[in-house]
Known about the structure:
- By secondary structure, the chain is of the alpha/beta class.
- Among the domains are: 246 residues, Glycosidases (TIM Barrel); 203 residues, Class I glutamine amidotransferase (GATase) domain (Rossmann fold), CATH 3.40.50.
- The protein is built from 17 helices and 25 strands.
- Strands 12-11-13-14-19-18-17-15-16-20 form a 10-stranded mixed sheet.
- α5 runs parallel beside α8 and α11 runs parallel beside α12.
- The chain is globular and about 75 Å long.
- The site of alpha-D-galactopyranose (GLA) has 8 residues, from loops.
- Zinc ion (ZN) binds next to α6.
Amino acid sequence: MKIGVDYYPEQWDKSLWAKDAELMSKTGVKVVRVAEFAWSRIEPKDGEFDFTWLDEVLRTLSRYGLEIVLGVPTNCPPLWMYQMFPDIVQVGPDGKHIQTGIRAHRCINAPMFMFYAKRITEQLVRRYGNEQSIIAWQIDNELEAYPCCCDVCKDSFRQWLLDKHDTLENINAAFGTSVWSGEYSDISQVQPPTAYPKAWQNPALCLEFYRFTSESTVRYAKELAMVIRRESPKAKITTNTWFCENTPDFYKLFEDMDFVSYDNYPPIRIPSDPDEFYSHAFHLDLMRGIRQDKFWVMEQLSGPTGSWAPMSPTPRPGMILGYSMQALARGAETVVHFRWRTATHGAEMHWHGLIDHSNVPGRRFFEFSELCKTASKLGVLDNTRIVSEIAILYSPENDAAFKIQPQTDGFYYLEQLKYFHAAFSRYGANIDVVSPDADLSKYKVVIAPSMYVNKKSATENIYRFVINGGTLVLTNRSGVKDPNNNCIMDQLPTVYKELIGAEITEYDPIGWEEQTIVDFAGNKFTCRQWCDVLSLTTAKAYAEYNDNFYRCCPAVTMNRYCSGVAYYVGTVCKMDFYESFAGNIMKQTGIPRLKGLPRGVEVVTRTNGLDDYIIFFNNSAENASIGLPKAMYSIMDSVGKDKIELKPFGFDIVRK
Ligand code: GLA
Ligand code: ZN
């Protein structure tokens, strides 16, 4: 694993550059990302390029043996451009251009912006395309499927709809515009879903607009990638992503890129409720699943966060090292820390880097330096990979559709996935998080939470998996919508009825209310948010409701279908249910379970085909002790061990 830092030479006096590079190199830093926001320095005036400073930065960094990720700075057009072309600024839901003066104001569909974005990309790649020290290019920064409402976006959206649906009649039919006299008699009447209140918007229109904005973002990144490739065919290209309100479709965004990169800011505050699970392991697994390959962390937690929010606590001892090891365990091949030094100017001066404002390296920096040393000794893991028998399906489209129409109080799509991820993690299982269209044949168990908007290819994929002998878990709110995000007129879960061998006769969206279910062995669990009342056709009841007018009706079912098994979980429970359920499923399918893992301890097994390495990470504030079934060799301490002792955020790696 390589360790890197995000560096902003344009924010520091030139006299610091060589000193910084020297310290980076001495510390063991291998990779430095620069320039992703530096457009105004590179092109101070329209068409006048100044590369002298960047030449010097790159020269200085490479003199110290540092490898470089060069940012394509299109996130921040210089202010002269906004002045010359006010129409390249995004338009908000109020129909007005958003205020400039922060960052990322540009509309990625605006032709003039695109002209300049391609030109700066071309300039950079022509100048630096053959630079040996540049190992990757980062396009823009944290691209969002921003719902811009400018005239260009509106027109493009209308054209996009016509291309997809052919005729206005089809659009009317797809959107069900007979409701509230919403029928379009001319395409120009189609508006982005911005009318107030947002919750009253047409869900079909909303989902199409999300698809349009996501595709626009993907197209934009692809066009810039093409410019880079044209000039430098061997360039490695990525963009750094995160989970935001307008998350684009990750699978499409990274389709033509060389690797995925993720901005990883794990929680600094440890949840006091033992039932609250950590979700960062899940996010990392999701990132690995996008291309089912190694990925990078392009920004990693380095200090107290803050700036637009009050500051968080400082990372506890062990976190800087431990969270990077957690990322490594789950597939990160390079972890770049945000940022080398904390800004003394600008909006982010309270989002801390490794070195504080004082420029005096302190505790966090020393831990980082230990990380660099540790990383350099982990070559044995370089050719290892994660092999999982369990997959959880993540659908960007379902994620978007649930944001458009939250179902009931407390119900969040991603949390449905995280419950299962946390539950299988309790037994030390490797878990992949993949697209519903991924090849599922290599898995024994597939969890398909809330397959809400029906997509034929995904539904067929799921049926195929079970027909071929797989064990599937489907959950509530599946088969609800057709591809236009309209309700399907059929007994739920519609397209999955046959597979689960049961039908939903009624549902009860109970929100925060709590009820109980009882499983086949008499164990009682709390449930909330949603209760599907099931009627069995060929399935058996795994658990039944214990309260309300549907007491004794099935809540969780199990159906044998062809050579496989399909479970259906019709309600949302607390962690104890998922842990018990996951344990049973692993037992049924013969997936080995590590029992008695202390809460918070994460286990990942990596293999090179010959040797297996188990990485233990204590993601908790308590000391943890884990007994091993047999003595194993710790590559961290170079001794055999039959017990692993971990401090808070500590880790160990043993050869199985
Ligand atoms: C994001 C951005 C960075 C910076 C950090 C910290 O991840 O990509 O530029 O703003 O957040 O706030
Ligand atoms: Zn726009």
